[in-house]
Design brief:
CATH architecture of the largest domain: 3-Layer(bba) Sandwich
Number of strands: 22
CATH topology of the largest domain: Glucose Oxidase, domain 1
CATH class of the largest domain: Alpha Beta
Strand content: 15-25%
Distance between the termini: 69 Å
Structural class: alpha/beta
Shape: elongated
Radius of gyration: 29 Å
Helix content: 40-55%
Number of domains: 4
Strand order of the largest sheet: 7-14-13-9-10-11-12-8
Bound molecules: phosphoenolpyruvate, magnesium ion
Oligomer: single chain
Length: 752
């Protein structure tokens, strides 16, 4: 087997094509296929296991094992070596399979005599649909080339199995025993709101007609032409996005980077060299990348996967000459395993009522787009693609993170009423949008927006916010492996300044590290990344990063105001050091003859508790302080903000936390230092009420908070609230949330 060459593989693929195109049932053709593979590889056994309902792998066809075991031997995913391959979508190659701890002996198969084993997953659209295994009597090691070759063959068989519908969807339903009844599926709410509509399946998988080719030169040419077309497509989208208020530009630029990724393209070319058509090679390379990336635990890198899925799909579409979109119904609920940002943008927003995803995470680009377009999203819905049929009616509840499939009429009526109520509520926010955010007793409160993508800036005019209180500069770069150069950064920051139309923007320097970093930037994995080498610590240790960013910010705000703040400052010395670097960059900029910003304000985040005991000193130095209550809360209570088991254990409305906030407000007022708060609590009306009572006059929040908080402010008497909250600070209760609710109710304060 070790002497198997690329020419042998091409020959075998060409035989496979004949078998697959030949006559006979699927069973007969698969039987011929496994025989062919066993002979081709000089193996004693070749078996094909197919995934059945209930995550069970059934021995579907074999050469070399006992024929009586066919359709009888079944292994659960995770059981034995075959189950292990399916569970992790990863190949296994062992010279001595018997000594592996996962090995499970199945006497009915007669596999007593076979020592070595090489198995690979059969993948369809990134999903494991079976396992292909070869075994030999001798203890024989397998090399990487052999594994890759078996993966190529497995891909071809996977197409045969899918095309012939060996596993039918109905079969899966029967296994669940409730074919077409209403069903509730739960997931994670990634953007709130409700939608009622019919399921439209976003087609992530393009059926590949021809898999095997005799002429790699022609296929390579087809690939290059398709890549050119793909680049043109992405460039056109970037161009449109720039014309369209520069909103999606940053996301698409990241995207173009992937389209030019040499590693990805050379893997496709290699697969063409092994005898596949261009489209099969794209699928092959993509399955491979997908399987490898799925093993990664880094959420940021896993998010790159969606972008790669998106690109591979586009490429497949170009190659198969297909138009991707059929007519979209007026009330579409899009259902997908995952989706890329540009794919989502391809749909007509006016017709989209919601998005259901099997995968998905809050910071992936498609979700950023969905938020900006205000499309409710329920993600991480297990089995969504298997359970939902095109044109099924769906009520999507993005607030509760659930969808109701094929709902009853009564349910649809109730959901419609809830949606109408929400629409009325939104209208009421729109009605107060232009009214000043001033309390009933005349205290003016500044309402700012938190942003991270250009797309977020759209909300500035929609909400009539005063400005951007927190611009998280790391957001557009999270999935990149290295930061862009000064020119690119400057162009991006300039776009931010322009899109904000003269409203003030506070740029926060890079807050990478912790859960926010492209893995390659990180030298070593840390046990406790939130408290590790992140944020200002990282940029002070790698000052060129900070220098370049500051240089870009100075240039982007030339002639205007530069408001910049540093994250995760734990000591006054860190602030001084960062400020020193800024001053040096300003001097350098002046020496080079560049226009300087007319006004410069330098602030700090207050999110590390140690700064509380240096508050007077930092308040003297900084032009402004912004409380990062998300991090401050996690460090004060030693409760990981990302760990749901502890994140909700303590309340921001506990007397302890409120006392601390009161201390900050009092000291900043005494020092005359501008104070704001930009953690999530600022955007929740009840919490915002408490903050105003404690003396905060500047709140920065995500767009969805501005309407409700503005409505609350206009119904609040700040002085009364200050007296009431002051009286609660010394209580020993765990939380004063209920007291604050009662106060709001008794004083007709609007909390929605
Ligand atoms: C915070 O920690 O409260 C904050 C606003 O910063 P981030 O959420 O980006 O860490
Ligand atoms: Mg923070």
């Amino acid at each position: 087997m070790t002497s198997f060459s690329a020419a042998d593989l091409r020959r075998m693929l060409s035989h496979l094509r004949d078998v697959m195109a030949g006559v006979g049932t699927v069973q007969e053709r698969l039987d011929k296929t496994v025989t062919l593979i066993a002979h081709g590889l000089k193996a004693d056994v070749c078996s094909c296991y197919v995934m059945r309902a209930g995550e069970v792998l059934e021995l579907f066809s074999t050469f070399g094992l006992s024929q009586t075991a066919v359709h009888m031997t079944r292994l659960r995913v995770g059981e034995g070596l075959v189950g292990e391959i399916a569970a992790h979508a990863r190949a296994i190659a062992l010279a001595d399979a018997w000594s592996h701890p996962q090995f499970v002996y199945r006497p009915e198969t007669g596999e007593d005599f076979f020592r070595s084993l090489m198995g690979v997953p059969m993948l369809q659209a990134g999903r494991v649909i079976g396992v292909l295994v070869v075994q030999t009597r001798d203890q024989r090691p397998f090399n990487d080339w052999e594994v890759e070759m078996l993966e190529t063959v497995a891909m071809v068989i996977a197409e045969l199995i899918t095309a012939s519908q060996v596993v039918k969807r109905e079969e899966l339903f029967q296994a669940e025993g409730n074919a077409l009844l209403a069903m509730r599926l739960t997931g994670a709410s990634l953007h709130p709101g409700m939608g009622i509509g019919v399921a439209v399946m976003h087609k992530p998988h393009v059926r590949i007609g021809r898999l095997i080719s005799d002429d790699p030169i022609i296929e390579e040419r087809r690939l290059q032409n398709a890549l050119d077309a793909l680049r043109r497509e992405v460039d056109a989208m970037i161009h449109d996005a720039h014309a369209d208020a520069s909103l999606y530009g940053d996301i698409l630029e990241v995207y173009r980077m992937f389209a030019d990724d040499r590693g990805w393209i050379s893997r496709i070319s290699e697969a063409i060299g092994s005898g596949l058509t261009a489209e099969a090679a794209v699928q092959r390379a993509h399955d491979d990348t997908r399987a490898r990336m799925q093993q990664m635990t880094d959420p940021i890198l896993r998010e790159r996967l969606q972008d790669l899925d998106d690109l591979a799909n586009r490429l497949l579409n170009i190659l198969s000459g297909g138009g991707m979109r059929s007519e979209l119904p007026d009330n579409a609920i899009l259902v997908c395993r995952s989706i890329g940002p540009t794919e989502l943008l391809d749909y007509d927003r006016k017709k989209l009522r919601g998005l259901v995803m099997e995968e998905g995470s809050p910071t992936m680009h498609a979700i950023v787009v969905a938020k900006a377009l205000d499309i409710p999203v329920v993600a991480q819905v297990e089995g969504a693609l298997q359970r939902i049929d095109a044109f099924d009616q769906i009520v999507l509840d993005g607030n509760a993170g659930q969808i109701i499939l094929r709902p009853s009429e009564e349910f649809v009526e109730a959901a419609t009423a809830a949606m109408e109520a929400r629409a009325r509520q939104r209208e009421s926010y729109a009605a107060v949008k232009h009214l000043p955010s001033v309390t009933a007793d005349g205290e003016a409160i500044t309402l700012n927006l938190n942003a991270g993508f250009l797309i977020d800036l759209q909300a500035l005019s929609e909400t009539n916010a005063t400005g951007i209180g927190l611009y998280r500069t790391e957001m557009p770069f999270l999935s990149m492996t290295k930061l862009p150069d000064v020119r690119t950064q400057r162009a991006l920051y300039r776009q931010v300044v322009e899109a904000s139309g003269g409203k003030p923007v506070t740029f926060r320097t890079l807050d990478v590290g912790g859960d926010k970093i492209a893995a390659s930037t990180m030298a070593t994995a840390e046990d406790n990344p939130a408290m590790g080498w992140r944020s200002i610590r990282l940029t002070l240790d790698r000052p060129s990063l900070l220098r370049q960013q500051l240089r870009a910010l100075i240039a982007a705000t030339a002639g205007g105001t530069l408001r910049v703040m540093f994250p995760m400052i734990a000591t006054v010395a860190e602030f001084d050091e960062a400020r020193f670097i800024l001053d040096r960059e300003l001097a350098r900029h002046g020496d080079d003859g560049g226009d300087a910003p007319k006004e410069i304000k330098v602030g700090t985040m207050l999110e590390v508790p140690s700064l509380l005991w240096q508050l007077d000193a930092i308040a003297r130095r900084a032009d402004f302080i912004s409380v990062g209550s998300n991090d401050l809360m996690q460090f004060v209570f030693a409760a990981d903000r990302g760990n749901t088991r502890v994140a909700n254990r303590y309340d921001t409305l506990s007397p302890a936390f409120l006392r601390m906030l009161s201390y900050i407000a009092t000291h900043c007022a005494a020092a005359g230092t501008e104070l704001s708060i930009c953690g999530e609590m600022a955007g929740r009306p009840l919490e915002a009420m408490a903050l105003i009572a404690l003396g905060f006059r500047n709140l920065s929040m995500s767009a969805s908070g501005i309407g409700p908080v503005r409505a609350m402010i206009r119904s609040l008497n700040a002085d009364e609230a200050a007296r009431y909250v002051g009286g609660l600070l010394n209580t020993e209760r765990l939380s004063v949330r209920q007291d604050l609710r009662a106060f709001a109710r008794d004083h007709n304060i609007v909390l929605q």
